[in-house]
Amino acid sequence: MSKQFDVIVIGGGPGGYIAAIRAAQLGFNVACVDEWKNAKGGPALGGTCTNVGCIPSKALLQSSEHYDQAGHHFADHGIEVKGLGLDLAKMVARKDTVVKQNNDGIQYLFKKNKVTFFHGRGSFVAAVDGGYAIKVGEESLVGKHIVIATGSNARPLPGTPFDEETILSNDGALRIGAVPKKLGLIGSGVIGLEMGSVWRRLGSEVTILEGLPTFLGAVDEQIAKEAKKAFDKQGLKINLGVKVGEIKKSKKGVSIAYTDAKGEAQTLDVDKLIVSIGRVPNTIGLDVDTIGLLLDDRGAIIVDGDCKTNLANIWAIGDVVRGPMLAHKAEEEGVAVAERIAGQHGHVNFNTVPWVIYTNPEIAWVGQTEQQLKAAGKAYKAGTFPFLANGRARALGDTTGMVKMLADAVTDEILGVHIVGPQASELIAECVMAMEFRASAEDIARICHAHPSLSESTKEAALAVDKRTLNF
Ligand code: FAD
Ligand code: NAI
């Protein structure tokens, strides 16, 4: 006998679990199916984000930053540290505890919101009267609406599968047992920089091989340049414009043959290699063919602007569809879809989805870059303010970077904000809100910001748009 639901969500990552909770809040009878297993084989809700993504990476970034600060920067504050040591096993165990707290938190939220949870792989069986039949192990479910939120997987290099011992995806990169003397990474994107930073701070000699000739091509050029300067100073070796060739494993580690930007043949020998060259949408085991659900040539489920697939009452959200692969984008789509199922007007504004890279300095942005505005022929004004001129940044001892604001030359509407520097991840929230409310640069310039705070730099960047900074 099938169990009937108004809404079945397949995938319990940030897209899926949030969609399930919002649908339950709206009065639907909701099930969520998720197959992720913890080390004991039990459920581990939260998907990539909670288990091998956002949360564990930020836990290790924080711990490794503390270590780096204690080893190299506390002395600037007059604090002497003697006998500094690293207990990597404890650091990794702390990260695992943080992950578990988040896994358990989602289970609690499901109970609180009366979402029925099924642990296992959900596969489509058929379209049936009143919805779609889904199989989860021995269980048969029928849902009137299905929300697919099955996420993404790390993309391996062709012919070089992940073994998670020497050739690591994000999963293995988050549980290396001893600090590698030499660590290689392929791809200087978000994971390359975050994971490269973690292991550099803990003592590895880190080399990143990047295929493109430009560093962080999607980031505003001025900001990317400033960030690159900081990473170079830290000793993170980033080789741009390389072509990766044969990768050979040996008892000692991995040997990577590549051609450098000058066209010369090189070899990089490392103990471990992290491959971070992007992620692919995941529909493994969903059996989409049984119902005729359409995928694009990248393997992403085809959806329209409202996350509707080609089949009635089947929706798809998050990493498994087009758009940025970000947890908060997946969450927003989850909420919007639940509201659309309820006949409401759920909405996601893709122009105001922020990006954050949690390195030191942090990099955060929202809206358009200067090069995008130039390419579009848009008349704009730019204002920048360096943290060097901010009192709080000086007090923190962290004056790298700047806030850069771009506004429409005619209306003064904010078109983009780009930050590299301390707490950029938090500072960007004000800018996202300003853009969501279609604020002008002058609106920000006229708002009272607490002193001394890093947020005064955002106000000053807004003043700089009108060429009237007060502190620079
Ligand atoms: P996922 O989180 O991938 O969840 C999908 C879930 O569905 C998984 O639990 C999976 O097991 C389950 N599933 C799949 N198929 C089935 C099936 N057939 N049946 C049952 N269950 C199934 N984003 C940010 O915004 N900020 C960050 O700081 C950040 N850091 C990251 C760091 C790393 C190292 C990585 C890899 C990613 C990071 N991301 C970050 C990206 C973020 O993790 C993803 O964008 C986000 O997890 C996508 O959410 P989702 O719900 O679409 O899918
Ligand atoms: P990415 O797309 O950010 O970066 C991949 C990099 O690898 C690019 O610079 C690309 O040019 C390069 N590359 C691709 N193929 C290559 C090859 N054969 N040789 C050399 N270089 C090559 O992908 P990444 O870092 O794997 O992360 C995946 C996604 O996960 C991100 O795009 C992001 O959506 C998400 N993420 C988000 C985080 C955050 O929000 N802080 C943190 C980590 C991941």
* Large-scale geometry: globular
CATH-defined superfamily of the largest domain: FAD/NAD(P)-binding domain
CATH class of the largest domain: Alpha Beta
Strand content: 25-35%
Q: Which class of secondary structure composition applies to the elements?
A: alpha/beta
Q: Roughly how many Å is the radius of gyration?
A: 24 Å
The assigned CATH architecture of the largest domain is 3-Layer(bba) Sandwich
**Count of discrete alpha- or pi-helical segments spanning 4 or more residues:** 13
Number of strands: 22
CATH topology of the largest domain: FAD/NAD(P)-binding domain
Bound ligands, named by name, code or SMILES: flavin-adenine dinucleotide, 1,4-dihydronicotinamide adenine dinucleotide
Q: Count up the domains.
A: 3
Measure the end-to-end span.
71 Å
Percent of residues in helical segments? 25-40%
| Mean of residue pLDDT values | 98
Unreliable residue runs: none
The main β sheet shows up as:
7 strands, mixed
Explain what this protein looks like in three dimensions:
With 472 residues, this protein is α/β, with parallel strands linked by helices. The protein folds into three domains: 3-154 and 280-348, FAD/NAD(P)-binding domain (3-Layer(bba) Sandwich); 167-277, FAD/NAD(P)-binding domain, CATH 3.50.50.60; 352-465, FAD/NAD-linked reductase, C-terminal dimerisation domain (Enolase-like, domain 1), CATH 3.30.390.30. It contains 13 helices and 22 strands. It has helices at residues 14-25, 47-52, 54-72, 88-112, 170-173, 190-201, 221-234, 327-341, 370-375, 391-396, 424-436, 441-445, 456-465, and strands at 3-10, 30-34, 116-119, 122-128, 131-136, 139-148, 152-154, 167-168, 182-186, 205-209, 237-239, 243-249, 254-259, 265-270, 272-275, 279-281, 314-316, 355-357, 362-367, 380-386, 402-408, 414-421. Strands 1, 2, 3, 4, 5, 6 and 17 form a seven-stranded mixed sheet that branches. Strand 9, helix 6 and strand 10 (205-209) form a beta-alpha-beta unit. The model has no long low-confidence stretch (mean pLDDT 98). The site of 1,4-dihydronicotinamide adenine dinucleotide (NAI) has 24 residues, from helix 6 and strand 18.
